[in-house]
Amino acid sequence: MRIAVTGSIATDHLMTFRGRFADSLIAGQLDKVSLSFLADDLDIRRGGVAGNISFGLGVLGLSPVIVGAAGEDVADYRAWLERHGVDCRGIRISDSRHTARFVCTTDDDLAQIATFYAGAMAEAREIELEPVAARVGGLDMVVIAPNDPLAMVRHTQECRARGYAFAADPSQQLAFMEGPAIRKLVDDATYLFTNEYESHLIEQKTGWSADEIAAKVTTRVTTRGKDGATILTRGQEPIHVPAVPPAHIADPTGVGDAFRAGFLAGLAWELPHERCGQVGATLATQVLETVGTQEYEGSMPGFVARLRAAYGDEAADEVAAHLPSFID
Ligand SMILES: Nc1ncnc2c1ncn2[C@@H]1O[C@H](COP(=O)(O)OP(=O)(O)OP(=O)(O)O)[C@@H](O)[C@H]1O
Ligand SMILES: [Mg+2]
Description:
Blueprint: E1 3-6, E2 10-16, E3 41-47, H1 49-59, E4 65-70, H2 75-83, E5 91-93, E6 100-106, E7 112-117, H3 130-136, E8 141-144, H4 149-162, E9 166-168, H5 179-186, E10 191-195, H6 196-206, H7 210-216, E11 219-223, E12 229-233, E13 239-241, H8 255-268, H9 273-288, H10 303-311, H11 313-320
Parallel strand pairs: 1-4, 1-8, 2-6, 4-5, 8-9, 9-10, 10-11
Antiparallel strand pairs: 2-3, 6-7, 11-12, 12-13
Helix pairs in contact: 1-8, 5-6, 8-9, 9-10, 10-11
The protein binds adenosine-5'-triphosphate and magnesium ion (MG).
């Protein structure tokens, strides 16, 4: 199964300031703010939704094609993804803008001052999927994950026009998009992935009821944090997949992306939806236990044992048959 993952490619630059921002903000002087904070640590993490999902697929032994826009500065990140099995030839390199970047400083009160620079991501709207499909011999599933909003709409329209099956994963972009654009992203999707909050937001913004969405989307996957996930396929009984309890929670960022990567890997292995959800939930828990969204490779030995403990022998044996040998 040839999977293309479209979406954001970004790095997060996270700093900590030992002090309180509030001590520097002087009431009455807020019209002339000019502040600088001396940060102690700088942590640079690879991220972006397309980066996270493709990385997860790569770690599970698949070779997804990542499709998105970045700057010249993406070279190291690209090499990292390639080392993990991701086909990066679908990354468009901007000749004038840097890769999208999230810069955030957190103080001792956990107050944050953050800036997001979209940069090259805006050029994702220039990307056409057809040349990517031609190069890899066709696309069986195109994931449309958070990205430049015009790119998301364009990729979806191209999938519909060319008959590529697609998975709509609008996630955090739902907050910034209006009903008519969201309708364009959802209609005709083979899969619709959201968390519970986003699932309500879609209904509210599009004005479509759950039944109407069920008529437009073949399978709707809704994740519910520690309460697991629900998989609803048109004409079938709903499936509930319980979550895998974490040993400890280090950082929840990226759990949704890991769930999607695991689910899509299950689809590529032609496993039934319940197994797909179990692979997704197991990978999500590995991410929950590590800081960062692409730092869990070290905990992959043990993946099958964990899936076995949560879902039983049959599930574990079926999944293990498809995994690379370092994962057990
Ligand atoms: N506290 C938790 N304990 C166990 N599993 C969890 C927990 N939180 C999330 N998960 C797993 O991750 C999946 C996705 O979680 P969730 O619904 O919170 O996604 P999300 O809100 O899209 O997350 P994000 O956007 O922050 O990545 C869940 O279906 C579950 O399998
Ligand atoms: Mg999410």
